[in-house]
Amino acid sequence: MRFTLAWLKEYLEFESTVEDLCEKLTSIGLEVEELKNPKKNLDGFTVSEIVEINPHPNASKLNICDVDNGKEIIKIVCGALNVKKNMKTVLANIGCIIKPECKEEFVISKSTIRGVESNGMLCSKEELGLSDESDGIIELDDTSIVGDSFSNYIDDEMIEIEIAITPNRVDCAGVYGIARDLNASGFGTLKTKKIKTFPEKFESKIRVYNKLKNDSCPQISFRQINNVRNVKSPKEIVKRFNGSKLKVISSLVDVTNYLTVDFCRPLHVFDLDKIEGDISIRYSKKGESFFGLDEKSYSLEENMIVICDEKKIISLAGVMGGKNSGCDENTKNILIESAYFLPEKIASTGRKLNIISDARYRFERGIDPNSIADGIGMATEMIIGICGGEVGSIVSDSSPLKSTIEINIEKSFFNKILGHSISENFIEEKLKRIGCEIKSLKENFIVKPPTWRPDIRIKEDLVEEVGRLVGYEKIPNKEFKFNITPETEITSPSQKLKRNIKELLVSRNIMEIISWSFSNKRWEERLNSNNNIFEIENPISSELSCLRTNLVGGLLNIISKNNKKNIQNISIFEMGPIFTGLKPGNQTEHLTVIRSGKAEEKNWTSENRDFDIFDIKSDLISILKLLEIPLNKIRIESDKKQYYHPGKNGSVIFDGVKIANFGEIHPSISKSFKIKNTSILLEFYIQEIFQFLNNSWLTKEKLSKSIFQSSIRDFSFEVDKKLNSIDLVNHIRNIDKEIISEVRIFDNYENKDFRALALEVVIQSDKKTLTEEEINRLSVEIVNEAKSKFKAKLR
Amino acid sequence: MDYDKLIQSALNEVQASSSSENLEKVRVKYFGKNGLFTKELKSLSTLSTEQKKVVGVKLNDFKNDFFSKLSIKKDEIENYEINKKLEEDFVDPSLPAREKNFINSKIHPISHTMNEITSILGNMGLVYEEGPDIEDDFHNFTALNIPKDHPARQMHDTFYLDSIEDKYVLRTHTSPVQIRSLKKKKLPLRIFAPGRTYRCDSDITHTPMFHQVEGLVVDEGITFSNLKWFLESFCKIFFKKDNLKLRFRPSYFPFTEPSAEVDINYKKVSGKITFGEGNQWMEILGCGMVHPEVFKMSNIKTNATGFAFGMGIERLAMLKYGMPDLRDFFDNDLKWLEHYGFSFFEKSDLSWR
Q1: Same-domain pairing of A601 and A499
Q2: What is the pLDDT of residue B3?
Q3: Chain B residues whose beta carbon lies within 8 Å of the beta carbon of residue A488
Q4: Nearest-CA residue of chain A relative to B138?
Q5: Peptide linkage before B258 cis (omega within 30 of 0)
Q6: Please, which pLDDT band fits residue A657 given cuts at 50, 70 and 90?
Q7: What is the pLDDT of residue B102?
Q8: How many Å apart are CA A307 and CA B328, to the nearest integer?
Q9: In which domain, by residue range, is A105 found?
Q10: How far is A489 from chain B (nearest CA, A)?
C-alpha cells in the first residue's frame, strides 16, 4: 500500500517528522517498506534563473549559461535541450551530492568542460529523484523565488510511503484507516471524513434484482448520474496518483481507484448507456464467458458472483468490471456500484481465475459492510466536482446489516496472555479509539468491534490490539525455567547418530552437500528402479519437476557442475529425505556418498590412481564401525541396480536386510551427466539400520583377552574368478570358532586365466597354548574345506 | 716368536684401517679362525707352565687391548661412514606433503547452524522434533487456522502434489509440526523442529527449498513476556552478543495471536555489518502466542497458554556468517562449501564453542 504524505495529512494532523511517522507506523504493525523523501537529498540546491545563454565555442551541443543563484551570477556549461533565457530552474552548487535512483552518486565540483569552466550543474527531475524519466532540466514556474532552497519546493505530495499490510488489516488498506490507527496509537489528531450530500434530481428507472441478497451479496446499491463528462483528472489527483504509483486513466475510473485507496472502498462505475434492461446479481454457470477490463476473456466456473443486465454479464463482482459496460471518453450517463460481497467468495473467484486486482485484494480480506452508502456519497461528490452531471436516485437490493459480534473478555485475560498488567482505563480508551463499543462490567468487558475490523473476532484479537497500542517494547521480558529431568533427551538416538555419521564422513575428507529434494524426469527415468515417478503439480521448472527417489541424480549433477569449474577429484555426500510416494510419511532417509576422479591429487609421492569401490567400501566400514555393527555379520553380494557397473558393485546385507549398495557408477550414467571421471557410489539406507541399534550402551561388556600365544598361518589358494571371497572367509572362520580368531585376505592376484587369494589365519585359544600338531591338523582341515566347498586349490 | 713386533704391527693395522671391511680383515688376520694370534693362543698348551704364565698373560693383555682399540676404531669408522652417507642423503623439505585432496571437506553451513540452534534451544529446555516434508492440507493450513481461500494462503506459494483436491502439499513451513506434536504429546510441551520447507518461488532472495526451525512452548502461565525473554536469550546466545537489542513489531500469522515479527539491531560501516550496535533493524523471525484455534484443531482442551516461533535457518546463517547470496547454499560449489563450511572439529555445542 503506497500513498503520499499529503494524502495522509488530509486525515491526520501532526507535527512530527516523516521519519518519526514511519517509526510509529512500523511499531503499530504497519511496517514501512519504503520511504521516499527527496527533501533529504536537496541540501544546497537553490532556485536559480538563467539570465544569459551563449553557445559553447568548442561543442555544438553545449551551452554556456549565466545563472543567477540569488547571490551572484555564475557560469555553467549545460547540455539540456530545454534551456531558455529567463528560465527558472534548480542549481546544484559546488559540493552538492547527486543521488540518482539507479546510478552511482557523485559530488558536484568545479570543472572544465571542453575548455570552459563550469561552476555547478542544472538538474533534471531524475537527478533529484523526483521522477523516473529525464526530460531536460527542471522548469519551475514564475512564482519561484531565485535564491530559495529548492527543498522548500518539495511538497508533501512528493514524499512517498509504502507500507506492508498483513492480511488481517484490511482496514489499513485505505489512507483514512491508517490515519485512524495512528490516531488510536496516540499519534496525531484524526480529521473525520465529511461527506457532502446532493439532492436527487431524478428517479432512476433501473431495477436491481439481487438474487444473492441472503447469501454472498448481502449489500448492493447503485446510483445513476446523468450528463457527466469523463474528462482527464485534475492535476492534484494526477500528482497524488503519481506519488502513490496508481495509474491515471480517466476521471470516472480514477474516482473509483481513488476511493479504493482513500477509504478502502472499492467501487465500480458502469456506462449506463451500455447496459441493456434491468440489473441482476446471481451466480455464474459453468462455462459462461466474461471479457474483463484487462482485455482478457475468462471462462467462469459455477457459483462465482456476477452482475448482469438482461443480455450479458457486466461485471465479475468484487474482482473486475466488464469491458462491455466500462466507461470511455464518450460516456455520458453512469451507474456507480457500491457493494459488500462475502470475502471467501471473492477469494475463491480470484484464485480460480488468477485475477489480481485492488478490488479483489480488499473484498477478499473483508471491507466494511457498513460503507455502502458512504461509498456512493463520496463517489457522487467527487464525480460531480470533476465531471459535473445530474444526481439521480439510489437503487438498492440489500438485506439488513448483520449486527456485529460481541466479545466477552475477562479483565484479567490481558495479563494472562501478555504477562503484563495494563490499567482498565487504558484498555477502555484504546479499544474505543480503534472504534470499539465497550461496556465495563465487574470482571469483564463486553466489546463490540467496529464494522471495519472484521479481524477482531475473539478475546485474543483484543489482547493483540491492546498489546500493539501499548507497544510491544513496553511489555517487559520475563524469565521462566523448565525442569530438565534426567530422562530428557533433547535429540533422539537416531538424530545423534546421523550427526555423528556426518562428522565422520567429513573427517574422511568428504564434503557435505545439501541439494534440492527435487529431481526431474530425465534423472528419474535413469536412476529410479521402481518406475514410480512422483511429479509435482506446479513445479518451479522442468529441471525440478519431481520428488527425488534417491540422492544419486543430485550428487552427480553437482559433480558435473564442479567438473565444469575444473574441479575433478571430488568426494561428496548428502544425508537427506527421499520420497516413496506422495503422501505424508512417504519418505525415508538416505545417505549417499560419491567419490569421483583420482584417489589422490596428482603428486610426486605416488602414482595417482582412480578411486575404486574399495575406497568407498572403506567409508562404508568406517560407518559400520561407528554404529558398532559387527562386521562379521555383514554379507556382501552382487546386485543388479541398473545404474551400477554390472561387474563392480555390491549390496550389503545385515540380518537379512539390505542396508547399503556400493559400486562403480555405470559408465553410461556418468556419460549422461557429462562426467568423464570414474565415479564410485555408496548408498546407505540409514533408516534401515536404526532398527538394529542398541541405544542403551551405558555399561559395556567385560573385555575378554586370551593370555595364550597366538599363531599365524598363511594360505594361498587358486580360486574361481567369480568367487565371493567373503564366503570363503566366513566359511573358514566357522570351521572352529573357538580357536580361529581372525581370517584376513591380504592378497588377491588375477590374470587372464587365473586368480589367487592369499589368506592369513590367526589361531588362538582362550584355554591353552595350542600344540604344533593341533595347529597343523587345523591347517589341513582348512585346506580340505576350501577344496571341497570352494574348489580352491592350495598353491 | 717376536710378540712385540707382531703386537705392534697388529695395533698399527687397526689404527690404519679406513673402512669397516678393512678393519674386519685385520681382525680376521690376527684373531680369526686361523689368525696369527689364534694360533699362538692355541699353541700355549705346548709351553711349559712357567712360559705359559708369562706368555699367556702377555697375549691376553694384548687381546684385550686389541679388541678395545678395534671397537674404538670401529665406532670411529662407522660414525665416519654414517656421516659420509648422510652427506649424500638429502631431500628437499619444501616439496609438497602427502595430501590426498586439495579441497578441505566441511560440514555444510546449514547443518552447522542447525546444530548450533539445536544446542541452544536444547539447553533452554526444548526437545528436537521432526515432521514429514509432504503434508496434508489439514496440517499445513487448516489446523493452523488458514482455511481455504484465506488470503494468507496466497502468501505461501505452495507446491501441490495432487491435482484433484490440492490435498497434499510440500510443507510451506515447519509449523505443521506444532499440530503433530500437540496431537501426539502430552502437555506441558516444549519442542523445536528444524527441517526442509518448500515454496514455489525462485529469485535472488528465494529458493524453492529452504530450511526453517519451529519452536513451540505450551504450559500453564506462559505469556508474551516469557516469549520476549526466551527469544531475546536465544538471539543473544546465537549471535554471541550480550548487547543485542530486539524489536518486537506487531504482525500477523493466522496461527498466533498476538503475533510479532522480531528485528535485531545492527550498524553498517563501509559494508560491514555489526549486530548489537547502531539503530538499524533487521528482521530475523516471526512469533506469537498460540491461537486458540490451533489448540481446538489439535483436540486440546486446556487452560494452558503457549508461544510459538519460526525462523529461517539460511537467513540466520547468512546474518551470522556473512554469506552474501542465498542461492549459493544449494549450488554446492565446492570452493564455496570449503570457504563457508565448518570443520568437524568446530563445535557447535554450547559447552565447547
Answers
A1: yes
A2: 78
A3: 125, 127
A4: A584
A5: yes
A6: very high
A7: 77
A8: 51
A9: 43-153
A10: 7
A123 in the same domain as A221? no
CB contact under 8 A, A489 and B201: no
Q: Residue A353 maps to which CATH number?
A: 3.50.40.10
Identify the CATH number of the domain in which residue A627 sits: 3.30.930.10
- Residue at A459 is within a domain: yes
Same domain, A124 and A79: yes
pLDDT digits (tens, 9 = 90+) for A40-69: 778 788 999 999 888 888 888 888 899 998
Can you give the pLDDT at residue A193? 85
Among candidates A514, A544, A601 on the partner chain, residue whose Cβ is nearest the Cβ of B108: A514
Q: Quick: pLDDT tens for B1-15.
A: 677 888 888 889 888
Amino acid identity, residue B311?
A: M
| Residue ranges, chain B, pLDDT below 70 | 1, 163, 166
Q: What is the pLDDT of residue A559?
A: 97
pTM as predicted: 0.87
Q: Among candidates B278, B289, B245, which has minimal Cα distance to B264? A: B245
Do A129 and A53 share a structural domain? yes
- The half-sphere exposure of A577 on its side-chain side, counting CA atoms within 13 A, is 21
Answer yes or no: is A474 within a domain. no
Per-residue H/E/C for chain B: CCHHHHHHHHHHHHHHCCCHHHHHHHHHHHHCCCCHHHHHHHHHHHCCHHHHHHHHHHHHHHHHHHHHHHHHHHHHHHHHHHHHHHHHCCCCCCCCCCCCCCCCCCECHHHHHHHHHHHHHHHCCCEECCCCCEEEHHHHCHHHCCCCCCHHHHCCCCCECCCCCCCEEECCCCCHHHHHHHHHCCCCEEEEEEEEEECCCCECCECCEEEEEEEEEEECCCCHHHHHHHHHHHHHHHHCCCCCCEEEEEEEECCEEEEEEEEEEEEEECCEEEECCCCEEEEEEEEEEECHHHHHHCCCCCCCEEEEEEEEHHHHHHHHHCCCCHHHHHCCCHHHHHHHCECCCCCCCCCCC
Cβ-contact B264, B246 below 8 angstroms:
yes
Report yes or no on A203 lying in a domain.
no
Check pLDDT > 90 for residue A298. yes
Protein fold of B109-340 = BirA Bifunctional Protein; domain 2 (3.30.930)
Query: In the predicted model, is pLDDT for residue A133 greater than 80?
Result: no
Total number of domains in chain A: 6
In the block, which residue shows the cell 470482571? A443
What's the average model confidence in pLDDT over A297-317?
96
Q: Which amino acid is at B227?
A: L
Both A252 and A307 in a single domain? yes
pLDDT at A101: 63
Q: Do A583 and B125 touch (CB under 8 A)?
A: no
Average pLDDT in chain A: 91
Residues A47 and A34 in one domain: no
Percentage of the residues of chain A whose pLDDT score is greater than 70? 98
Report how far residue A163's alpha carbon sits from residue A204's, in angstroms, rounded to the nearest whole number: 41
- Specify whether A606 is located in the same domain as A721: no
On whether both A439 and A505 belong to a single domain, the answer is: no
Least confident of A387-401, A406-420, A684-698: A684-698
Task: Using the predicted structure, report yes or no on whether residue A789 has a pLDDT greater than 70.
Answer: yes
A-B C-beta contacts closer than 8 Å: 257
Res B240: pLDDT: 94
Q: Is the pLDDT of residue A593 over 60?
A: yes
Domain locations along chain B:
3-88, 109-340
The CA distance from B158 to the nearest CA of chain A, in Å, is: 9
Q: Which residue in A357, A327, A314, A317 sits closest to A253, CA to CA?
A: A327
A606 or A716: whose pLDDT is higher? A716
Find out whether B183 and B334 touch, Cβ atoms under 8 Å. Answer: no
pLDDT at residue A696 in the model: 53
- Residue A476 falls within a domain, yes or no? no
Cβ contacts (< 8 Å) between A540 and chain B: which residues?
Answer: 159, 200-202, 208
